[in-house]
Amino acid sequence: MDADSDVALDILITNVVCVFRTRCHLNLRKIALEGANVIYKRDVGKVLMKLRKPRITATIWSSGKIICTGATSEEEAKFGARRLARSLQKLGFQVIFTDFKVVNVLAVCNMPFEIRLPEFTKNNRPHASYEPELHPAVCYRIKSLRATLQIFSTGSITVTEIDVPFLQMLPSYSEIYTVAARPLQTAPAPNVQMLPWTCYVVTCYIELIM
């Protein structure tokens, strides 16, 4: 790989987890009997409800707390949550859509090279921890960004628990690339350049977590 070559990092959001409340008690048995696409888990006191558009799975508790997973953007998560609230209203519940919040985001990207995990861990202590007998990835924490990276030897990186302001977002991805390339002593790391469509994905991601 040439030192002067540019690499476009394809950073994609794969899951957005959000939570909201209905401000009313929910009869789980009624939802299970009259609702559509539901699974009643009586032993744990919750109901799972699935939407097709957008593809979201909601976990519903009788207290009115609802957690939604499966969205790929904040807009999609909020739209799905509102659709779910509307479905509960149609079942006769006095639902008020409140306290909506994105609580977790999962994003993935792939480096254009493999990563030597033992050497990577050695060079990045105490931020990096590696227990191959328990998990095939290195866990790398960026405390300043409240982000956790799962780094695999193939170059695949999973980013979770991200909650950073706009100005910190682009440096965070530069740090991801720099940290991953640090152990590679046989070839210098190439310059990182995000293509316009990649920047669009990152922009959506930034809007999601603000």
Automatic annotation (TrEMBL):
Localization of this protein: Cytoplasm; Nucleus
Any one of the GO CC terms: nucleus
Domain of life from the UniProt record: Eukaryota
GO molecular function annotations of the record: DNA binding
GO biological process: DNA-templated transcription initiation
Matching Pfam families: TBP (PF00352)
Record has Ion transport as a keyword: no
InterPro entries reported in the protein's UniProt record: TBP, TBP-like, TBP_dom_sf
CDD domains according to UniProt: TLF
Primary location class: cytoplasm
Alphabetically ordered keywords of this record: Cytoplasm, DNA-binding, Nucleus, Transcription, Transcription regulation
Statement: the UniProt record of this protein carries the keyword DNA-binding: yes
UniProt subunit comment: Binds TFIIA and TFIIB.
Family: Belongs to the TBP family.
Function of the molecule: Part of a specialized transcription system that mediates the transcription of most ribosomal proteins through the 5'-TCT-3' motif which is a core promoter element at these genes. Seems to also mediate the transcription of NF1. Does not bind the TATA box.
Protein name: TATA box-binding protein-like 1
